Amino acid sequence: MEKPDVIDAASGTGEVAFRHFIDGRAVSSARTFEKRRPFDGSLVGLVAEAGREEVDAAVTAARRALTGPWAGISVEDRSDLMRAVADGITRRFDDFVEAEMADTGQPRSMMGHAFVPRGAANFKAFADVVKSVATEAFQTATPDGAGAINYSIRKPKGVIGVISPWNAPFLLMTWKVAPALACGNTVVVKPSEETPGTATLLGEVMNEVGIPAGVYNVIHGFGPDSAGAFLTEHPGVDAITFTGETRTGTAIMQAAARGLRDVSFEMGGKNSALVFADADLDKTIEGLTRSVFLNCGQVCLGTERVLVERPVFEEVVARLKAAAEALRPGHPEDKATNFGPLISQEHRDKVLSYYAKAAADGATVVTGGGVPDLPGDLARGSFVQPTIWTGLADDSAAVTEEIFGPCCHIRPFDSEDEAIRLANATEYGLATSIWTRDLSRAHRVAAAVDVGITWINSWFLRDLRTPFGGTKQSGIGREGGVHSLEFYTELRNICVKL
Ligand code: NAD
């Protein structure tokens, strides 16, 4: 029997298949793998796994589309099409929320209020950016006195390979697809094997709003020796944009080196929050509760190291403990649920291994440290307790390695210099938040902490026009606003002798 194209992510029958989206059509593979719901372990459906053949078909379709009708569409019309995609997402809002909920297990409230709307917002933002960006021009002196004019134009880079992770799948995938298409490229997307839903659904929206076949392609599968590696190794891919773990980025960079393909990398973090004694503690605790526990701690920008000036250390520990213990794990449809599961049992094993290491390293477990006792089917979900430690040495694994779970270590400091030194004592450099009422100090510390993104008295407050990316092991390049154009277009110079 033909499997349905339209995903009924809520059906739970196991009949649903996520197929590739190649050249405007759903495409099957002989091999499939299972996608299970993280909150109760039930089967969402089977997912097609692309081999080299399907990856090649997707890249070939994307290359062909570069010279088809897509190439003749003006910037204005492309911008309108990006807005149409955003409207198409909004029209099928509930389908996207269902798909994202089935894939990630996070509460409906979070998907509906933040992560799915942001997918549509990404398309709107880059619809505006491509229409308003200027290019440079120089008047150049020449020996004959007549001069020359140098001006630059932007051209699409070509076929972009988009490799995305599972933690905010729709938001992070569209953050790359939107600028890539707005700039006139074509894409082959490899979503995480954990989250096949929304990337597949977006293919239907692309067809509904008239994006030409081959412009947006999706292939499903794993990383090494599977769809991810086949895509990044494919010589028909002109550039690769990747969000995920630093270790994976290293492997992708090696693949990209063949043929000197450009890369844009958004990778891991071990982010700090710096809380000074003069901070508004109500706002600080509210911010820390989000930055440590949102999405069950599976946010690249999330805080895993909280540094607190000693006079307010005990108060911050006590209040964050109370906030953690007030979180309600549960079914994503339950209105009382504000704390979802980890993405998979495998990831839960990893997070629990850090809980064990922290205990073995002598941490004081302020709260959590294990698995919550949940009733019925939820007992099969991949939930863990929100967890706070104090008292760990600066070189212990839970303080230095990215855990990507709902946990943090809280450590006191005695001076601004010490806070900066501790914040910078990491191989990562993605984000930080600084909590203080002293504006001069806020600016001083912001400039001294070596990260790509700093929030002062807030966290995850995003303006999509700003540069986004990390220093050190947290990434290469910046995306956002005009900065995305640096990666998704090729800037060419034209010199005219007058
Ligand atoms: P991951 O690196 O395991 O996987 C990401 C993607 O890469 C998946 O689609 C996977 O299938 C693919 N992949 C894996 N190995 C590959 C290979 N050898 N070749 C090609 N593709 C391969 O990451 P994850 O576990 O899905 O996501 C969590 C990580 O992502 C965390 O480290 C987190 O900090 C990071 N992240 C960073 C940002 C950011 O903006 N900096 C945002 C979100 C997540």
Automatic annotation (TrEMBL):
In the UniProt record, does the keyword Oxidoreductase occur? Answer: yes
Q: What Enzyme Commission number(s) appear in the record?
A: 1.2.1.85
What are the alphabetically sorted keywords of the record? NAD, Oxidoreductase
> What name appears for this protein in its UniProt entry?
2-hydroxymuconic semialdehyde dehydrogenase
| Assigned protein family | Belongs to the aldehyde dehydrogenase family.
Which Pfam families did the record assign? Aldedh
Q: List the Gene3D superfamilies.
A: Aldehyde Dehydrogenase, Chain A, domain 1, Aldehyde Dehydrogenase, Chain A, domain 2
Alphabetized GO MF terms:
oxidoreductase activity
| Domain named Aldehyde dehydrogenase: residues | 29-493
